[in-house]
Write a structure and sequence with these properties.
heterodimer, A: Rossmann fold, Rossmann fold, 9-stranded mixed sheet, 5-stranded parallel sheet, B: about 290 residues, mainly alpha, two-stranded antiparallel ribbon, about 5% strand, globular
């Protein structure tokens, strides 16, 4: 082969360009900092959820780094803000996997965003954590859903509130997969407990005028309202409901109120008496939680947002992953997944959280609480609740090669009577 | 009967709400033909004025009724002098410039207050009971305010010399200039007034919807649809279009839910513009303001 100038330039340029890729491929996984990517909305209508989640994630990673990192390596946290837009989610998910080559990604707030990015992580084989309460039904070996699901929370909330307030339930929910499917769970539990779901209404995320619906609730003769409303615009419902004087006569329970710290955004008179069930409340009276809250507040100073399930679970989710990395002795995806599914758990501010291997969901404590003067008073505690909704349709032990969302077409399509 | 009455009140509120968010745009776009894509942001700025003022201990009513229109009117004045006055008669350029302005406002407010929702002000005035139904007193108040506002704009246009001169300038600015009117000043004053009305609307809506930097997006489409459906006569047009579209929206929302309510509103607007391409006042009430 004669070496002319043109060929020489071509080959050298090619080698130089390819060199970083080779180095990256060979060494990226076990040397240098561990790459932890977080994709959470910090602006737009979903910012009320995303900002405390990011703060809590940063706190977890900082604590781990102060304690010497993981496996002797520092953890490098990279946070993306998809601005409440699904389009940015898919873009950042690709960036996290293909560009950043993340060891783990903790991402997504709405179920719509989760379903937009979950297939990407599955395809690129990047370990994925979703730390938000949701409607249940994800059956994906690569995806750990650590938040609470309806069988853990709504199943307790519905009978409690129906006993207290009455059997006719009016359901208002956000108009996307979370709201649609959660409304079906509520209908199911209301019927299971001998009640009547009189009406169900769905609202696009940007609706701010709830007047006609409030009139409908009045004329429906409902005893109580169950809300699965989502995002900043929907807070208007609670204010308009209280302004019409309805919160005194037809009380509200919710599957979402409070996880965006809505109870701090509306006044005490507007919110008093609402009942919710989550796997974490800032008001949990345990030494571990008091310590967690104090550390968070010390770290954030005067601007500290209130803590809720989403924030606490983002913190605990990061620790669950860290425990698995320690147990596996590597950050490689399959060994970490196996370690997570071996029954690994952490004792976090919400209590014990353990991964349930059939579903990759969490066994967790659930608390039922009533709102009073902008803070939640815990009424009931349910220890170690399994994700029994997802267990109905998912068994990753029998068939690990799954990456589906079983409730995509609703509960009936998944064989669950509502 | 009580239900019918309280429902009628609710629909009336929907109509008033539409008229409120559209009136400022009707003045700026309907009257001056300035396509103001930053209209939603004028509403948003009015909202933030109220939030900031009340956080600093200012009385809520003073903040909503005086401060919000004043501050946004001043912003409108600055915008007109620095930007809009060079662009009269250049529709596409105005469109781009005001769109840029809208992004700028969203950016500035986001960097000052953060992108989060501010909703700490509760609607005042308590509740009103109608038989076994209850309504928000504040919503009734808003209906009342919109009626007053429409009356004020009407009286100003019809009976003051400013109104006369402004109408003359909008109809034929060259002729008005020949008659010794400083048309540049009239444009400036009219634009500021339009902005002030938007600011007032934004301030008044804060207790009901809260405010966030990009809340303008929720309003802008509805405002344009209302003003365009209304046609060239700004008062009669905005009022009749609000009644029609707000009424359709309210009734359909009650019967089927909010999603179809919005669809029905847009559908009604499309049918309307197909039948009357120049808006309601292009065919009816032609002699009105």
């Amino acid at each position: 082969m004669t070496l002319n100038r043109r060929r020489f330039l071509k080959t050298t340029a090619g080698t130089i360009l390819a060199a970083p890729a080779l180095v990256n491929g060979a060494f990226a996984s076990n040397h240098g900092p561990i790459k932890f990517v977080s994709i959470l909305d910090q602006s737009g209508g979903l910012d009320i959820y995303g900002k405390p989640m990011v703060d809590a994630t940063k706190m977890a990673i900082d604590e781990m780094n102060e304690a010497g990192g993981l496996l002797g390596r520092k953890i490098d946290l990279k946070v993306y803000d998809p601005q409440s837009s699904i389009q940015f989610y898919t873009q950042f998910a690709t960036q996290a996997t293909a560009g950043d080559r993340a060891d783990v990604v903790h991402a997504g707030i709405t179920s719509a965003s989760r379903e937009a990015i979950r297939p990407t992580f599955s395809r690129y084989k990047t370990l994925y954590f979703y730390n938000v309460l949701y409607e249940g039904g994800v059956c994906d070996i690569n995806n750990f859903c650590t938040g609470s699901t309806p069988a853990q929370t709504v199943e307790k909330l519905v009978p409690y509130t129906m006993n207290k307030w009455g059997k006719k339930v009016y359901i208002v929910a956000a108009d996307y997969n979370y709201g649609q499917i959660t409304a079906q769970w509520v209908q199911k539990y209301v019927r299971d407990n001998g009640g009547d779901p009189v009406e169900t209404e769905f609202f696009p995320l940007d609706v701010t005028n709830f007047g006609p619906t409030i009139k409908k609730i009045q004329s429906s003769g409902a005893d109580m309202v169950m809300s699965a409303l989502v995002g900043g615009a929907h807070i208007s419902f609670y204010r308009q409901y209280a302004a019409a004087g309805m919160n005194k006569s037809v009380p509200v329970a919710s599957t979402t109120f409070g996880v965006g710290n809505e109870h701090k955004l509306i006044s005490a008179e507007e919110g008093d008496g609402m009942i919710c069930a989550y796997s974490y409340f800032e008001e949990i009276d345990s030494p571990a939680n008091k310590d967690f809250v104090a550390r968070f507040q010390a770290r954030m100073g005067a601007d500290a947002p209130a803590l809720n399930e989403l924030a606490a679970r983002s913190y605990e989710g990061a620790y669950l992953w860290a425990e698995a990395v320690k147990a596996a002795g590597t950050t490689d995806r399959m060994p970490v997944i196996e370690a997570l599914r071996s029954g690994i758990g952490v004792d976090g501010p919400s209590g014990r959280v353990e991964i349930e291997p059939k579903t990759n969901h969490a066994l967790q404590n659930v608390y039922l609480a009533e709102l009073k003067d902008q803070s939640f008073n815990i009424i009931e505690t349910y220890k170690n609740q399994p994700p029994s909704d997802t267990l109905l349709v998912c068994d990753l032990v029998a068939d690990p090669n799954q990456s589906v969302f079983k409730f995509e077409n609703g509960l009936k399509a998944a064989g669950i009577d509502i | 009967m009580d239900l019918l009455f309280s429902l009628a009140l609710q629909i009336l509120y929907g109509i008033a709400n539409l008229a409120l968010i559209s009136l400022g745009l009707a003045i700026v776009f309907g009257m001056m033909r300035v396509i103001n894509l930053a209209h939603g942001e004028f509403l948003m700025l009015g909202g933030y004025t109220v939030v900031v003022a009340t956080n600093n201990g200012v009385n809520l009513w003073f903040a909503m009724l005086i401060l919000a229109p004043l501050v946004v009117g001043l912003i409108g004045l600055i915008v007109e002098r620095c930007l809009i006055q060079w662009l009269y008669g250049r529709m596409i350029d105005t469109l781009l410039a005001t769109w840029g302005l809208s992004l700028l406002f969203i950016g500035i407010i986001t960097s000052i207050f953060g992108a989060s929702t501010s909703t700490v002000i509760s609607p005042p005035l308590g509740t009103v009971t109608i038989g076994e139904y209850t309504s928000s007193g504040y919503e009734l108040f808003l209906i009342f305010v919109v009626i007053i506002l429409l009356a004020l704009v009407y009286l100003t246009l019809k009976f003051t010399s400013l109104g006369l001169v402004a109408r003359a300038t909008m109809q034929n600015s060259d002729m008005s200039a020949c008659l010794g009117i400083s048309t540049s000043k009239i444009y400036m004053v009219t634009f500021s007034l339009g902005a002030a009305v938007s600011g007032l609307a934004g301030g008044l809506l804060v207790p009901i919807t809260g405010v966030l930097p990009n809340i303008g997006v929720i309003y802008i489409a509805k405002a344009f649809i209302t003003v365009i459906s209304g046609g060239s006569a700004i008062l009669a047009g905005t009022t009749s279009a609000s009644v029609l579209l707000g009424g359709v929206n309210g009734i359909m929302s009650y019967i089927t839910g909010p999603t179809f309510g919005e669809v029905a509103l847009l559908f009604a607007a499309i049918i309307l513009l197909r039948l009357m391409p120049t808006g309601i006042t292009g065919r009816f009430f032609r002699k009105s303001q």
